[in-house]
Amino acid sequence: MRVYLLVLLIAAAVTYLLTPLAYWVAARTGAITAVRDRDVHTIPTARLGGLAMTAGLVVAVTFASQMPFLDGVFAIDDRAWAIVGGALIVCLLGVADDIWDLDWMTKLAGQVLAALFVAWQGVQLVTFPINGLVIGSSRLSLIVTVLVIVVAMNAVNFVDGLDGLAAGLIAIGGSAYFVYTYSLTVAASPTDYSNLATLVMAALVGICLGFLPHNFHPARIFMGDSGSMVLGLVLASAVIVVTGSIDTGMASDPSRQRELIPILLPLAVILLPLLDMVLAVVRRVGTGKSPFHPDRLHLHHRLLALGHSHRRAVIIMYVWTAVFAFGAVALVRWPAENVAIGLVVAVVVAAILTLGPLRTRGRFLDDDAVTAPEGIPSAPPPRRVAAASGASPVAPASTPTTTEPPTDPFRAHPEGHSR
Asked: Is 63 helix (H, G, I), strand (E, B) or coil?
């Protein structure tokens, strides 16, 4: 455990220390997120935080490769380096997109290429822990693996809409998955606790924690696509590694409820972004619009409209993620009936925090208040604007200028990267 915690700390420290350098690069290359009518942030903000996060991942895995405790991870195959290589590919893709605004087809092609690279190096989904189901075709295994990784990358990208939201959600979900993979490793191999998925999750949680001090509201820098896609790829790869290593005979035993957790836990970790995505598609198609048409009716927008401050909205989404993620992990130690009772209690508490007296309808408690979603009246203070060069914020003109929202489906979240 101490070695994994050391890897986590190294990833966090490197990310934290290099984030100011990423800010400098963003300022020099023009990777600045402009303020649009539907956005939550109120001044142009640098992105490319993913550069520091990816560097933290690379340094942490490199350090781990020199630790005798983790020899078993690197001696068997090169899957750890495959995950790092895939992360580097999507990081470069995200940097290009953050600077030059790539079209969605180019971006999707790059995501598929990165997923293919990871899968080709052995990180493939070959089994499902449901009745011992095995993917018999290598081609089907490759397709399913690529699909899972691409969906995860875009799900994390989609939820990256408030300061600190994506990094915090993945840190919480990754911590839960770390607990699960470590406990599974201890049970399966009492003499060797080295495990690839546990190592990857430790590094993943570390880079999220290292980035949060710079990204929590009010954010000084966004992770950008170069960060959100890296988080999605690394998370999906760790899930695939665990799921693919399960003994299908054990998985088919209904008394082994813990073997279902590789399916339940990833869903719990990305439940909020998946729910947000599904609701957005249904909402937009139902009104005759494109599924990728941007709006201000995402879950975090609704929390703001309920009267929660920016920070409180983020923390509430943290709470919901923790409820479901650690609820799934609890199945490792307690019977499903007891976990269900505890989960119901936790959901009630989370619902009270969401809808209870802490909120103040009609106003936002942060200095940089935002307008309510469409159809919900509010009277926020005037939006501040500033030049990308860091000039002091000034009051806008009486008639603010608005821009047409982009049609790129990958810009559907409030922290999109139109410049």
From this structure: helix
Distance between CA atoms of 42 and 304, rounded to whole angstroms? 15
Query: At how many degrees (to 10) do helices 261-269 and 271-286 cross?
Result: 60
d(CA 333, CA 326): 11
Q: Give every CB contact of residue 256 below 8 A, 6+ residues apart in sequence.
A: 250
Query: β-strands 133-134, 127-128: how paired?
Result: antiparallel
Angle (CA) 327-331-335 rounded to 5° is 115
Name the 3-class secondary structure at 221. strand
Of 52, 55, 61, 60, residue with least CA distance to 79:
61
- Compute the C-alpha angle 164/386/364, nearest 5°: 50
pTM of the model: 0.79
Number of helices (H) and strands (E) in the chain: give both, helices first: 15, 4
- The whole-angstrom separation of Cα 20 and Cα 209 is 15
Distance separating alpha carbons of residues 83 and 33, to the nearest angstrom: 28
What are the tens digits of pLDDT across the range 212-233? 999 998 889 999 999 999 999 9
3-state SS class at 186: helix
280-324: pLDDT as tens digits: 668 767 777 766 566 666 676 677 777 778 788 889 889 999 999
Is residue 27 within 8 Å of 218, Cβ to Cβ? no
Amino acid at 275: L
Distance of CA 338 to the CA centre of its chain: 29
Neighbouring CB atoms inside 10 A of 205's CB total 25
Asked if residues 290 and 406 have their Cβ atoms less than 8 Å apart, the reply is no
* DSSP 3-state percent helix, strand, coil across the chain (nearest 5): 65, 5, 35
